[in-house]
Design brief:
The chain is α/β, with parallel strands linked by helices. Helix 1 runs antiparallel to helix 2. It has 2 domains: 46 residues; 252 residues, 2-enoyl-CoA Hydratase, Chain A, domain 1 (Alpha-Beta Complex), CATH 3.90.226.
Length: 333
């Protein structure tokens, strides 16, 4: 038997079954052999469902970064029609890590904004591996304001390990522009839908992540920091990335339970990288359904709901309650 196909370590049992099926299909086909192939295919489906239904947080990160996972440019062709890209921030330049443009979603005219990582090394270099600069976030906000002017809904596709951390980006106001984007998106008078399609890392994700509805693909993650970054800060070594991933509680199931995201979009069996078209159909169905719901809500009420949605996130104590909690903790110690 040949060596198992390359892939994640936790997928090797699946690849071994696939190789057995491939070997059987090369032989002369008999009714008994065909029955055996069908039996192995059922086993493969059950095993894939079992493995992907119990991924650890670190394994989820690996899946979200899979080289074949659909990117923003894939969704632009599979989900939307008549996409017309818009360029530049009118201050510094055009950031290829942030794409923006008008498109049609079923019967709706919308503005689409999304991170792009690139496929080839040349594309990845041009896109800075999905890490946008300040001009990217300024471009996104300028186009969102334009969409608001023409009463067009905004759809944001999030897929970034974080905003670009270089000196030039900091000199051009990286932190300030992300903060401004979050503030402006909180009050834009148009429906905003956000979907985390892969990585949702740090402020780079939040820069286009404030919306009326925030959803995640099943095997994506959405976090205040990447697991490697967290491990580097807390344990001074990236070797603890797996431990950090578990502590951060950033998987779709965790965030749905905590109320950080509104919906989780199921992925095809074995992850989005195995079936782009099926993933795109599910994303499209979610966007159309959510958009119809939001357009039925009066503007003032929708803005109030958006504000309350983010105000409800997290838990904190103040005044006497905080003092009482501190006293109880001291007694327990």
């Amino acid at each position: 038997m040949e060596a198992p196909a390359p892939g994640f370590e936790f997928e090797q049992p699946i690849f071994e079954l696939q190789l057995r099926i491939a070997d059987l299909q090369k032989q002369e086909q008999t009714p008994e052999l065909q029955d055996e192939v069908r039996k192995l295919r059922r086993e493969e489906a059950d095993l894939t469902k079992q493995i992907y239904g119990s991924l650890s947080p670190w394994e989820t990160v690996k899946v979200s970064r899979h080289k074949d996972r659909p990117h923003t440019v894939d969704y632009l062709s599979l989900v939307f029609d008549d996409f017309v890209e818009l360029h530049g921030d009118k201050f510094f330049g055009d950031d290829r890590a942030m794409r923006a443009g008008f498109a049609k979603l079923d019967q709706f005219k919308v503005l689409v904004v999304g991170h792009e990582k690139g496929r080839t090394y040349k594309e990845k270099s041009a896109c800075y591996f999905g890490c946008a600069h300040p001009e990217g976030y300024r471009k996104a906000m300028a186009k969102m304001r334009m969409a608001t002017k023409f009463k067009l809904p905004v759809i944001c596709l999030i897929d970034t390990p974080g905003a670009y951390p270089g000196i030039g980006a900091e000199e051009r106001g990286q932190a300030q522009v992300i903060a401004e984007n979050m503030f402006e998106m909180s009050r834009l008078d148009t429906p905003i839908l956000c979907v985390v399609i892969g990585e949702g890392g740090s402020g780079g994700a939040l820069g286009i992540g404030v919306g009326d509805r925030v959803a995640m693909l099943e095997h994506s993650y959405y976090s205040v920091i990447s697991p490697e970054g967290c491990a580097g800060i807390l344990w001074k070594s990236h070797e603890y990335a797996e431990r950090a991933a578990t502590a951060l509680k950033f998987t779709s199931s965790d965030l749905k339970r905590l109320g950080v995201v509104d919906d989780v979009i199921p992925e095809p069996l074995g992850g989005a990288h195995r079936d782009h078209h099926q993933t795109a159909r599910r994303v499209k169905a979610h966007l159309i359904k959510s958009l119809r719901e939001l357009l039925a809500i009066p503007n003032d009420e929708r803005l109030a709901q958006r504000y309350e949605k983010f105000r409800r996130m997290g838990q904190f104590l103040d005044g006497n309650l905080a003092a009482q909690a501190g006293s109880t903790a001291d007694e327990s110690a």
